[in-house]
C-alpha cells in the first residue's frame, strides 16, 4: 500500500470513529495524476445520494500530457462500496454531527483506493484540548530523550 495523499486537517477538525476502504471511479488521465501524487483532499467530503456515495471537493490536478482528455480537477467522483455498507453509512450519517470525510488516497496494487472516515465534528474546546495533549506528549518525549542522553 502506497499512500498518495492524506487529509491531516480531518484529524484536527473531527473525531474519527470508524474507517473503511472504498474504490474510486477515475478516468485515465486522473489515474496518472494520482500516481504522480497530484492530489489534495483538503475541504473534501463524501455524500450519499440515491444509494450511491460520491466524493465532493477532492482536487486531482490535470495530467500535464493529457491534452483534451483532462477533466475538471474538482469534479464529483463516485465511490465504490457494497450496498450493505452504503445503507449502514447512510443510517449513521443521518445522526446529528456525523459526516463522511476522506482520510487518505492510496494505491493498493494497481487500484486507487480512498480511506473514508465516519467522523463527528470537534468543537473549538476539543481542538484546544487536542493541541494541549499533543504539546504535553512532545514535552514528555523531549524530557525522556534528554534524560536518556545524559545517563
Automatic annotation (TrEMBL):
High-level lineage: Bacteria, Bacillati, Bacillota, Clostridia, Eubacteriales
One example GO MF annotation: RNA binding
Localization: Cytoplasm
Name of protein: SsrA-binding protein
Role according to the record: Required for rescue of stalled ribosomes mediated by trans-translation. Binds to transfer-messenger RNA (tmRNA), required for stable association of tmRNA with ribosomes. tmRNA and SmpB together mimic tRNA shape, replacing the anticodon stem-loop with SmpB. tmRNA is encoded by the ssrA gene; the 2 termini fold to resemble tRNA(Ala) and it encodes a 'tag peptide', a short internal open reading frame. During trans-translation Ala-aminoacylated tmRNA acts like a tRNA, entering the A-site of stalled ribosomes, displacing the stalled mRNA.
GO cellular component, one term: cytosol
Alphabetical GO biological process terms: trans-translation; trans-translation-dependent protein tagging
Keyword list, A-Z: Cytoplasm, RNA-binding
Family from the record: Belongs to the SmpB family.
Amino acid at each position: 500500500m502506497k499512500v498518495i495523499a492524506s487529509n491531516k486537517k480531518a484529524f484536527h477538525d473531527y473525531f474519527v470513529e470508524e474507517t473503511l476502504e472504498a474504490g474510486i471511479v477515475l478516468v485515465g488521465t486522473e489515474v496518472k495524476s494520482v500516481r504522480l501524487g497530484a492530489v489534495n483532499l483538503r475541504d473534501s467530503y463524501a455524500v450519499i445520494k440515491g444509494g450511491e456515495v460520491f466524493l465532493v471537493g477532492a482536487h486531482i490536478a490535470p495530467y500535464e500530457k493529457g491534452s483534451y482528455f483532462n477533466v475538471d480537477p474538482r469534479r464529483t467522483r463516485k465511490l465504490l462500496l457494497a450496498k450493505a455498507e452504503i445503507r449502514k453509512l447512510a443510517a449513521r450519517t443521518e445522526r446529528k454531527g456525523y459526516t463522511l470525510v476522506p482520510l487518505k488516497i492510496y494505491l493498493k496494487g494497481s487500484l486507487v483506493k480512498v480511506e473514508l472516515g465516519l467522523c463527528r465534528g470537534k468543537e473549538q474546546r476539543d481542538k484546544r484540548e487536542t493541541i494541549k495533549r499533543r504539546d504535553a506528549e512532545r514535552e514528555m518525549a523531549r524530557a525522556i530523550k534528554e534524560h536518556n542522553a545524559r545517563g
